[in-house]
Structure formats: C-alpha cells, structure tokens
Amino acid sequence: MSFSLFLAFFAAAVVLSFERLTYIYVWRRPRAFASRCRRWRLAADPVAGLERLFYLFKVIQILVFAAWIFMFSAGQWPQLAAWPFLSGGIVLILVGQMLNLMTFWRLGRVGIFYGVRFGHEVAWCRQFPFSVFRNPQYLGTVLSIWGLFIAVRFEQPDWLLIPLLQTLYYALGAHFEKDSPRQPGAYVQAEVRATG
C-alpha cells in the first residue's frame, strides 16, 4: 500500500467512523443525546435531531466516496468495471436500496431514528425484511457500498478498502446497538414528555 493510499484510507476511516460512533452513542446514551439536542438546538425532539444527523452523515459518506473514487481515478471520470461486474454492482445497489426503503417503510420515521430509545412506542416488526434479516437497513447500506465500488473501482488496487471498512463499521455498529437486560428500550419517555 502506497503512503498516499494509506493516508487517504486513514482519513476516510476517521471521517466515516463518526456516523457509527454517533449511532452507538445515541443507542446507549439516549438521555444524554436528548439533552444535547436541546442544548445545541439541534432539535427539540431527539428523533428529529437524529434524523438531521442521519442526512448530514449521508452527505459526508457520499462526499468521502466521491473523493475516493475521483482521487484514485487520477482526477478523471472513473472507468466502469467490465459488464459482468458492472451489472453485479448495479444489482447489489438495487437490492441494498430496496432493503433500505423497505426498512423505512416498515418502521417509519420514529422507528428508524431510534424513537423507542426516546420513549416512543414502536411496534416490533416481524414482516419482511425483518423476517429474514436482523438489521436490513445496515445490510442494505453495505450491499449498496459494495455494489458502488464493484461498479466503479473493481480490479483497481484500492477497490476493497472502503467496502471492507464500511462492512466492519456497520457490523460493529449492529453489535454495539444490541439491547441488554440492563438497557430496556425506552429510556427517556418522561423527559421527552416533560420538555416536549
């Protein structure tokens, strides 16, 4: 790995880690997050605050991916992979986005943005994609990332780095966002109602 590739990977790893670390923090410390939302005037409702951060993190993620692809395509429009890999990448992106859309549709805004951690009642979903996958939104995102890098960077020396990093981050996020008996789902119902 060249030094410039190492530096780019390190920078991407740091910047992309903020999203996963934030979600782990919010999942494990919802009271503290709700308090910070109000104090920093991010939003009065922590669900809305997390939703705003979600969109910010997606913009950052897209910018990191675009910068990576542009930088390692020698500043030119990236050359697409050969047809079988390009079509495989497109299929992964489509399947991934379908899983993301289904997850948003099934859980709704409050469910997606950890409303259960803030005292909202969110029904447990057992329908597809939850009937097949434990974390369909994370799986959908990871499949989309793999599809993108297969389509535009496959067979280049750097093509695996960002997808592997993001797979690791999402797997760790899913692991650390699990509930434990000491952490019931709804933490701050009274606080949210008192300040809402």
Automatic annotation (TrEMBL):
Subcellular localization(s) per the UniProt record: Endoplasmic reticulum membrane
Sequence intervals crossing the membrane: 53-73, 80-99
UniProt pathway: Phospholipid metabolism; phosphatidylcholine biosynthesis; Lipid metabolism
Alphabetized UniProt keyword annotations: Endoplasmic reticulum, Membrane, Methyltransferase, S-adenosyl-L-methionine, Transferase, Transmembrane, Transmembrane helix
Membrane topology reported for the UniProt record: Multi-pass membrane protein
InterPro entries in UniProt: PEMT/MFAP, Phopholipid_MeTrfase
Pfam families to which the protein is assigned, alphabetical: PEMT
E.C. number(s) listed in UniProt: 2.1.1.71
Gene Ontology terms, MF aspect: phosphatidyl-N-methylethanolamine N-methyltransferase activity
Single Gene Ontology BP annotation: phosphatidylcholine biosynthetic process
Protein known as: phosphatidyl-N-methylethanolamine N-methyltransferase
Species, as recorded: Oceanococcus atlanticus
